[in-house]
C-alpha cells in the first residue's frame, strides 16, 4: 500500500470558494432535474419544498412534504421521480420527510426502485 502525497489528498476543510461552487452545482443540477421532469411531476414537486443535494456518495433529492397527504401523493409517484433522478446518477437517493418525520426520513435508493415499486 502506498501513501498518498499531501497534494493528492482532499482538503481537510473546504474553502469558501469550494462551498460556493458546490452550492452552484447543486442549484444547477436541481434546475436541470426540474426542467427534465414531466409537467405532472413538476406540479407534484411544487406542492413540497425540495432540493437536490450531493455528497461524496450520492446525489440526493430531498423532498419535505408539508403534510402526510402530500407525502402519500409523492409516494404514488416515487418510481417516476426515481427514474428521472437516475438519469443524473444511478446511485441517487430520494429522501422524503414530513414535519413529523424530519429526524427519521424515508430514504429510497433509485437502484432499489424496481424491486420495491
Describe this structure in words.
The protein is an alpha+beta fold and 117 residues long. Helix content is 43%, strand content 18%. It is built from five helices and four strands. It has helices at residues 16-36, 39-45, 68-76, 78-86, 113-116, and strands at 49-54, 59-64, 93-97, 106-109. Strands 1-2-3-4 form a four-stranded mixed beta sheet. A hairpin with an 8-residue loop joins strand 3 and strand 4. The longest helix is centred in the N-terminal third of the chain and has 21 residues, at 16-36. The chain is globular, with a radius of gyration of 16 Å. The relative contact order is 0.13. The model has no long low-confidence stretch (mean pLDDT 87).
Task: Give a nutshell description of this structure.
The protein is an alpha+beta fold and 117 residues long. The protein has helices at 16-36, 39-45, 68-76, 78-86, 113-116; strands at residues 49-54, 59-64, 93-97, 106-109.
Order of helices and strands: HHEEHHEEH
What is the number of helical segments per DSSP (H or I, 4+ residues)? 5
Inertia-based shape:
globular
Ranges where pLDDT stays below 50 over 5 or more residues in a row are none
Question: How many beta-strand runs?
Answer: 4
Question: Within the largest sheet, what's the order of strands?
Answer: 1-2-3-4
Biggest sheet overview:
4 strands, mixed
Rg is 16 Å
Amino acid at each position: 500500500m502506498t501513501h498518498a502525497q499531501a497534494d493528492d489528498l482532499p482538503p481537510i476543510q473546504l474553502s469558501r470558494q469550494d462551498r460556493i461552487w458546490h452550492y452552484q452545482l447543486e442549484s444547477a443540477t436541481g434546475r436541470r432535474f426540474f426542467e427534465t421532469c414531466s409537467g405532472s411531476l413538476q406540479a407534484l414537486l411544487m406542492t413540497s419544498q425540495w432540493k437536490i443535494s450531493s455528497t461524496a456518495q450520492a446525489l440526493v433529492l430531498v423532498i419535505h412534504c408539508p403534510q402526510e397527504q402530500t407525502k402519500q401523493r409523492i409516494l404514488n409517484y416515487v418510481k417516476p421521480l426515481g427514474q428521472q433522478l437516475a438519469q443524473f446518477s444511478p446511485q441517487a437517493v430520494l429522501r422524503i420527510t414530513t414535519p413529523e418525520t424530519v429526524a427519521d426520513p424515508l430514504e429510497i435508493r433509485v437502484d432499489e426502485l424496481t424491486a420495491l415499486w
